[in-house]
Amino acid sequence: MSIDTQAEHKEFQAETREVLRLVIHSLYSHKEIFLRELVSNASDACEKLRFAAIARPELLGTDELTIRLIPDAAAATLTIADNGIGMSREEAVENLGTIARSGTRRFLETLSGDAARDAQLIGQFGVGFYSAFIVADRVTVQSKRADAEAVRWESDGGGTYEVSASEKTQRGSEVILHLRDEDKEFLEPERLRQLVRRYSDHLAIPIVLEYDGKSETLNQAKAFWTRPKGELSDGDYQGFYKHLTHEEGEARAWAHNKVEGSLEYTSLLYLPKSAPYDLFDRERRAGVQLYVKRVFIMDKAAELLPPWLRFMRGVVDSADLPLNVSRELLQNNRTVEKIRAALIKRTLDLLEELAGNDAEGYLQFYQTFGAVLKEGIIEDPAQRTRIAKLLRLRSTAEGGASAWISLADYVGRMPADQKAIYYLTADSETAARGSPHLEGFRAKGIEVLLLTDRIDEWVVNHLHEYEGKSLVSAASAAAEVTSAIQTPEAVAAETAFQATLERLGKALEGSIESARVSPRLTDSPTCLVAGEFGLSLRMNRMLKQAGQDTPFAGRPILEINPKHPLVQRLKDTADTEAFGSLARVLFEQALLAEGGELEDPAGFVRRVNQLIVEGLADPPRIIVG
Question: Which of 146, 162, 294, 537 is the most buried (most CB within 10 A)?
């Protein structure tokens, strides 16, 4: 039967053309990555066939899955061939002429202009095929699925490509690179050996070099995680990490375990040094690779690790799960639940070991991933105590690195009569250290933890105590806080300012719950505190910014410093309108100190400017605005 080989010309998707342009012109200094990417794609094709053959064994037949490298010096071509799943005509157009819509734009946005870094992004975003054009001025792909006609795809990397029927009879794909003159080094067998050993030695599919009538297997061709730990070096583990993640950077630590008995599986977990660009993307699917009896099942099995450990990378190979396992089956599977519990434990063991043996390395980890780890305190009550021990926090303690402390450090140096662990949440460390709430604590020598991650507001609502000590906000009106720094002078001032406090309540009605003399202020005139059972002011603000109702927020309490000149002036102001104007300035100052927003910024500016101009003249002038 004759085959119609007439080519159909098509244009690349617009974003695909942009990716091609950037790959060809931006990554020329890292040309060798093309082989890593094309061999990785060939390996994926073989794994997909192996998986498909679970349901349809006839697809695989008796063939041994293999990747072949075929250099042809005479034709100046390098062919990367596999006998994997193959592509139909429609799949060739979809896979080679376009890029997954979700990944393309993110890839383009993530490019930094740093060629070394950008070279690592290619595989992560599924655009690795286009690296072929770094070394080739023309790329020909011939591919055949077992159940479809063969297809031929060809392009010079410009704006178009052509698709036609192919005479290929064997299942799989051949990527034929027509190399540029300056890139013919990639036809040399020794160069190919070097690159395979560097980038692809850990692939379980044999990579065979065919030249001069000889065949030579270049890689171990054995699943890395199945090899005994005793024969693996740190370099081996780091090499596999780079293959697994498509990253040039190294892992910080890893745990390799084989479990036998009632449950049989092997796990290899890595703790990365750097965070992925989308670590905090709620749509991102994270997880470790799942294999069943060495058969690749899925790339990101999120069911094997909780979201609060989504920074972990690795592989799990189970002998107990069915080969046809789906994501739905993973969600309600006792074997998966047991593996998940074991992986959580091993990850926390790994973090505790790092914290105990390498404090600096652990702090670097925590500064990168600590905000994610904290999610576990909210989401996993069973692990709350272990996670709490791993927290590293800033505090008001003096001295460089010692300001990063654990909760155990804080409790260890608490005075014997201190009943609680005090903390303050703020938008930044600078804002926290300058907060009026710390003044009284600082005067009494009481250490306060400074919590500046957005998630900290939720963390402290779930972590109520540590080693029997309650966590209490320094910005709370709770009796435990005020009694810790109460003085006889403050009690006397409460009586002396009783009338002023009542006037403040009326002048600021609708803005505050009440006013009282502060036991904590030493320098600032005022501050705002949350009610004992109300949301913190910062939490209330964040919920409003997120468009959520805050029915339990309540109004704040205004605390005044009776020794401050502005508060003394307020007490002595008889005129009701002048009193109200100055009270509003003091309230709005306190609100700004909390990171809040003013309803009438222009009015606040006018009132403050008037106070400056008048110099707090006696009697004060009425300020309207």
Answer: 537
